[in-house]
Amino acid sequence: MKIELKKFGIILISRPEGREAALAIKAYSKPAPSKLIELDFFGVDVLTPSWLDEFIQTLKQGFPLHEIKYLPCNNPSVVESIKVLEES
C-alpha cells in the first residue's frame, strides 16, 4: 500500500493532525497482502518529527504486521524528521 502524504496537506506539523491522518488511513484502507506500507513525501513542503512520529505510531497500531518504508525524498524537513525518528 502506497500512502501519498500530500493528501493530508503540504504542511504537516502537529501531533493531533498526524494521528488524525493515520486514523483516516486505518478507517478507509484495506491492507495489501504484501505487508508493506510505502510513505510517499512528494509534494510535502514541511514535515515535523512530531507529526511523523504520531502518524507512524498510529499506523503501527492499526497495521501491526506491516513494514513501513520511506520512499526517497530530497526535502530537508522530511529527511531530518526521518533521521530524528530513526535515532530515537
Quick structural summary:
By secondary structure, the chain is of the alpha/beta class. 45% of the residues lie in helices and 18% in strands.
Uncertain runs with pLDDT below 50, 5 residues or more? Answer: none
Judged by helices, strands and strand pairing, the structural class is alpha/beta
In total, the number of domains comes to 1
Helix tally equals 3
Side by side, the strands of the main sheet go 1-3-5
Mean pLDDT: 92
- The end-to-end span amounts to 25 Å
- Amount of helix: 40-55%
**Extended strand count:** 5
Main β-sheet: number of strands, strand sense, barrel status? 3 strands, parallel
Descriptive account of the structure:
With 88 residues, the chain is an alpha/beta fold. It has one domain (2-26, 34-87). It is 45% helix and 18% strand. The protein has 3 helices and 5 strands; from the N terminus they run ββαββαβα. The chain has helices spanning 15-28, 49-62, 76-87; strands at residues 2-4, 11-12, 36-40, 46-47, 67-70. The strands form 2 sheets. It has a 3-stranded parallel sheet, with no helix packed on it. Helix 1 (15-28) packs parallel to helix 2 (49-62) and helix 2 (49-62) packs across helix 3. The chain is globular.
Secondary-structure map with pairings?
Elements: E1 2-4, E2 11-12, H1 15-28, E3 36-40, E4 46-47, H2 49-62, E5 67-70, H3 76-87
Parallel strand pairs: 1-3, 2-4, 3-5
Helix pairs in contact: 1-2, 2-3
Question: Which short descriptors sum up this protein?
Answer:
single chain, 88 residues, alpha/beta, two-stranded parallel ribbon, 3 helices, 18% strand
